[in-house]
Design goal:
about 240 residues, mainly alpha, rod-shaped, single chain
Length: about 240
């Protein structure tokens, strides 16, 4: 910027000197013969002097303006340098803050992961406790049911198992009743249902044995009639 301004000043001085030279060439000594011509020449010299003075003042003003502009440029350059330094510091601060935040986020994420793992472990333990509690409760209920069944008459216990399609347990209870009350009123029914239980279990030969026993020992009973019907269907 300073070099360009000085080049402009030198160009103006060159133009002024060129104009003076051209005027001098136009006014030669051979032309200065009369007073009028000398007067014209003096006027021209005065005009040139005034022009030179104005030009000098103008150049002085331009130099002053250039110095002012150069000063402003230096101030702006200093401010720009300072601003650049502050911007760099701000950028560094921003980077440091970002890194710090990232570290904190990483710590929080690690803590959250550990908490989630602990929750999974606790849920598994809770599920295990619930399952154990349910198993204990079920076992207690089963024991109560078994106790109730054992307290019942064997025939009633057999009827209970038979209704639940627990045919093996029903056979055992019906057999207990038959051994305990060989002449009881429900022996025919117990024997017939033992045949049904074996048939349901796929044991056809055993089922036929009990159907035949019912028919031979209680030929006039409803159980005998039903046993005959089932024997016809067994292949």
């Amino acid at each position: 910027m300073k070099i360009q301004s000085q080049s402009i000043i030198y160009a103006l001085i060159f133009l002024l000197m060129s104009s003076v030279f051209l005027v001098g060439c136009l006014q030669t000594r051979s032309d200065l013969k009369t007073g009028e011509q000398r007067q014209v020449l003096q006027q021209q010299v005065g005009t040139l002097q005034k022009t030179n003075a104005d030009t000098f003042n103008r150049i002085t003003d331009l130099e002053e303006q250039l110095r002012f502009l150069n000063g402003r440029i230096e101030v702006l350059e200093n401010k720009l340098s300072t601003s650049s330094g502050e911007s760099e510091q701000l950028r560094r601060n921003s980077v440091e803050m970002s890194q710090s935040q990232n570290q904190k986020i990483a710590i929080f994420q690690d803590a959250l992961t550990k908490m989630e793992q602990n929750i999974v472990v606790l849920q598994a333990e809770l599920s295990s406790v619930r399952a154990q509690s349910l198993a204990d409760s079920t076992r207690k209920e089963t024991q109560k049911e078994l106790q109730k069944v054992s307290d019942k008459d064997p025939f009633e216990a057999g009827e209970s198992y038979f209704s639940k399609k627990d045919y093996k347990a029903a056979i055992l209870e019906y057999e207990k009743y038959r051994n305990k009350s060989s002449k009881g009123k429900k022996v025919a029914t117990a024997t017939y249902k033992m045949g049904i239980s074996f048939q349901e279990l796929g044991m056809k030969d055993e089922a036929k044995t009990f159907y035949d026993e019912v028919i031979s020992k209680y030929p006039k009973s409803d159980e005998a009639r039903k046993a005959k019907s089932r024997l016809q269907k067994i292949k």
